[in-house]
Write a structure and sequence with these properties.
10% strand; globular; 3-stranded antiparallel sheet; 9 helices; mainly alpha
């Protein structure tokens, strides 16, 4: 499903045969997008030289990734529990709606997962600098750490996809942050651009790439 007016470089042609061909095709998207593609281009540069084509030999690394995801998410929940409780309490005292926003999304292999986040609205952010800070630092998605503990999501991965006919599921477990999420922090991405970045992450995944994404995410949040 592509929004009207969006045309990706190489769309309609055969799928890339190698990781480098896929990266080259995405680089073409960036060059055609001019200034608007600069942020996506910076995310793509995280991919260059980050890994090899997916092989069964990487299964041990993926198992290590999933174990790290669950352990770090559990620790994150414990450490941020006072902060989570404070945000939830303030939202409850407002009394204008639910504390958590619940949405069904499609995960790896087409599995339907429930994604929860704090119900911080655009109107709240416009009225209060505090709520803008909560949203800007990513605190609204901290409840999703429980989804990581359950094994439905990863710390790093593609964006969870909406349940829409014809929209293919992500190739790997969706994550709290990733290539497309980083690009989205600075500019609006079309659905087609998000899917391209998510699929490129899945094709070129490595632990080194995850480390670079974590560093980049921390820099974007703390700057």
């Amino acid at each position: 499903m592509r929004p009207r007016g969006v045309r990706l470089g190489g769309a309609g042609g055969p799928p890339p045969k190698t990781r480098m061909e896929g990266t080259a095709r995405l680089a073409e998207v960036r060059s055609k997008g001019g200034h608007q593609g600069e942020t996506a281009g910076r995310s793509l540069r995280l991919v260059e030289g980050s890994g090899e084509d997916p092989t069964p030999q990487r299964s041990a690394a993926r198992m290590a990734k999933h174990a790290f995801d669950r352990a770090s998410a559990a620790c994150g929940l414990v450490v941020t529990l006072p902060l989570l409780a404070a945000v939830a309490l303030v939202l409850r005292l407002r009394g204008s709606g639910p504390v958590l926003r619940r949405a069904e999304r499609v995960g790896e292999g087409g599995k339907v997962i429930v994604v929860r986040s704090f119900a911080v609205t655009d109107a709240m952010c416009r009225r209060s600098r505090g709520w803008r800070l909560v949203r800007g630092t990513g605190l609204t998605v901290l409840p999703q750490l429980w989804t990581v503990v359950r094994g439905d999501m990863s710390i790093i991965g593609p964006r969870p996809r909406p349940r829409e006919p014809g929209l293919k599921p992500p190739l790997v477990r969706p994550g709290l942050t990733g290539l497309s999420q980083l690009a989205q922090l600075e500019r609006w991405l079309s659905v087609a651009e998000q899917l391209e970045l998510d699929d490129e992450y899945a094709r070129t995944w490595s632990l080194a790439l995850d480390a670079r994404i974590v560093w980049r995410t921390m820099w974007c949040v703390l700057r």
